[in-house]
Specification:
This is Cytochrome P450. Belongs to the cytochrome P450 family. The strands form three sheets. A four-stranded mixed β-sheet has the order 1-2-7-4. Helix content is about 45%, strand content about 5%. It is an alpha+beta fold and about 550 residues long. It is built from 21 helices and nine strands. The chain has one domain: Cytochrome P450 (Cytochrome p450, Orthogonal Bundle). The structure holds protoporphyrin IX containing FE. The site of protoporphyrin IX containing FE (HEM) has 33 residues, from helix 6, helix 16 and helix 21.
Length: about 550
């Protein structure tokens, strides 16, 4: 158990065991037990301001605080829910030297993300995201302030907003078509690994919209591309606390455990890769300029890099849009959710890394839940096939008509939010919430996973039943705090529209083109529905299913 804790805290979800830190922690624990002294079960009163109180929380050990309590379930969002059941929806815990507010009810989330949005709109300067964001020059990791506001405006108006989103529609439709053809080609050979193929799809979409290139030509062999592996490793490195975040007085811990070297190596790799993506587009743009010297319009906004390079020529933006900022923005622009202790990571590194993994996780969870609920699968397929009305694919115009599928997505995000604890925020000033005072500098995690399974809001919360949303007007766009898979407020996900479009398009076409069965041997016990050990919300086992190409739909 202790071994796994260290993996979660120190290495991301798949990192190697941090033996040195483990030994240190255990020694500290042993010392503590040896010199055991009685403690109170609640937190001391805050001294700043003097009349205020901190929210309640579990008793903490010296130095490590409540780190050991994350061992309870191996999954931080589960462990935190268990603690919140005891200490309340506003709970204060300590991880090493880091102070953390954990929010576990819709009402408390509304207080933090809406009522006091401004006070909680910072992000913590954690070691690993700091490096991969070129010193917080991306959007997801930027401290709240003028630079953040400018970056967010720029990203929304030029990269993720309506016009650009619409112009990239052919990329999404094209890539989903390639995925479907790849699955059809492989289907005669038995079950396919849908997890891998979905990740490949979203990596291809990401790379095409960002820099105009693909990761794999075939839709099923991304795995053999070294870039794919690099993205996965960076995705695991970025989220999560480094040891030096938890024990700032022991910065050497990161060196001793090898984390510093891993971060630096992967940072160099990713920097080289991003330089290449920019160079290629820069060269193409220069060539275009030479050919169009007669004065025709030189604008080429066919991908994010080109848009940013064009904007860089604007004298008003030249100083702001440095090369490092361009790299930071494109690395981090997607989703999905960087998960520091539970954030999906997708989003801590804006575009390249996060988006693919979170989209992949949503597709695989939706498909897995539908496989376990044949009535829901039947309903979803009937709807998709009716809407297709004889066409051999669903396009983005059709998506609005897929009402049941939208319920399926809501129910999937309720049970399996891609960032179970959202991306951590940081409190910018002392703030009074729910009768307590949260001191400036406190990190904040909103446990959306716990809110999604709280019987106070949901009948039979553990049951996958998309129909529950037929009766309640609950949306996922940040207004209903019982369902906030994209967060809410000033730091809410800016990639929701492109994220949802690619997900729905992929899912609809998978349901249209294929009938799905469990592989032999699984019919009896069903799929493994456990989450992977770690901080993100991936499935523990890859989703392997047997597709059969469906016949044409009636016109
Ligand atoms: C299923 C898809 C996605 C989900 C579930 C998702 C979820 C989230 C969540 C929960 C946050 C944190 C919100 C908060 O702190 O309140 C976030 C932030 C963010 N997301 Fe996404 N996201 C998705 C897709 C995308 C895509 C496709 C992009 C970009 C192309 C993107 C870019 C970002 C960025 C840049 C942030 C940081 C915003 C900031 O700090 O101001 N996301 N996302």
């Amino acid at each position: 158990m202790a071994t796994k804790l260290v993996e979660v805290i120190g290495q991301g979800s798949t990192g190697s065991v941090d033996l040195y830190l483990l030994c240190s922690l255990l020694s500290l624990l042993a010392l503590y037990v040896f010199f055991l002294r009685p403690r109170t079960s609640t937190w001391k009163k805050s001294t700043s301001p003097s009349t205020s109180t901190l929210p309640p929380g579990p008793p903490r050990l010296p130095i490590i605080g409540n780190l050991h309590q994350f061992l309870v379930d191996h999954l931080p969002h589960r462990s935190l829910r268990r603690l919140s059941d005891r200490y309340g929806p506003l709970m204060y815990v300590q991880l090493g030297a880091a102070r953390l507010l954990v929010v576990s009810s819709a009402e408390a989330a509304q207080q933090v993300l809406r009522t006091h949005d401004l006070a909680f709109s910072d992000r913590p300067p954690l070691r690993s995201p700091l490096r991969f964001s070129y010193g917080r020059r991306n959007l997801a990791g930027a401290p709240y302030g003028e630079e953040f506001t400018q970056t967010r405006k720029l990203v929304m108006s030029t990269l993720l907003g309506g016009k650009k989103h619409a112009s990239l529609r052919p990329v999404r439709e094209d890539e989903v078509g390639i995925l479907v053809s790849a699955i059809a080609r492989l289907s005669s050979g038995g079950p396919v690994n849908l997890t891998e193929m979905a990740l490949c799809l979203f990596n291809n979409i990401n790379r095409r919209v960002i820099s105009g290139r693909r990761l794999s030509d075939y839709g099923d062999v991304c795995k053999s591309n070294p870039l794919h592996q690099m993205f996965l490793e960076v995705n695991d490195l970025i989220p999560g606390f480094s040891n030096s975040d938890l024990f700032p007085s022991m910065p050497w811990l990161d060196v001793l455990t090898g984390r510093h070297a891993r971060i630096e190596k992967r940072f160099r790799d990713i920097d080289r890769f991003l330089e290449g993506e920019i160079d290629v587009n820069e060269a193409d743009t220069d060539n275009d300029e030479m050919m169009d010297a007669d004065g025709t319009d030189l604008e080429d906004d066919s991908n994010y890099v080109r848009t940013l390079l064009r904007l860089q020529k604007d004298p008003k933006l030249r100083l702001f849009l440095t090369r490092d900022r361009i790299k930071a923005i494109i690395l981090a622009s997607t989703s999905q959710i960087a998960r520091t202790l539970g954030l999906d990571t997708a989003c801590m590194q804006d575009m390249f890394i996060g988006g693919a993994q979170s989209s992949m996780a949503s597709v695989e969870w939706a498909m897995a839940e539908l496989m376990m609920k044949p009535e829901a699968m039947k309903k979803a397929q009937e709807e998709v096939r009716r809407v297709a009305g004889g066409k051999d694919r669903i396009d983005e115009d059709d998506l609005q008509k897929l009402e049941y599928m939208k319920l399926v997505m809501k129910e999937t995000w309720r049970l399996h939010p891609t960032g179970p604890l959202l991306i951590p925020r940081q409190c910018r000033e002392d703030c009074d919430v729910g009768g307590y005072t949260v001191p400036a500098g406190t990190l904040v995690h909103v446990n959306v996973w716990a809110i999604g399974r709280d019987p106070a809001y949901w009948r039979d919360p553990e049951v996958f039943r998309p129909e529950r949303f037929e009766d309640v007007a609950v949306d996922y766009r940040g207004q209903n705090f019982v369902l906030i898979p994209f967060g809410s407020g000033r730091r809410m996900c800016p990639g929701m529209a492109p994220g949802v479009a690619r997900l729905e398009l992929a899912l609809a076409n998978l349901l249209l083109k294929f009938n799905w069965e469990l592989p032999a041997g699984l019919e009896k016990h069903g799929l493994d529905m456990e989450e992977a050990f770690g901080i993100s919300n991936r499935r523990r086992s890859p989703l392997v299913l047997k597709p059969t190409v469906a016949g044409p739909t009636p016109p």
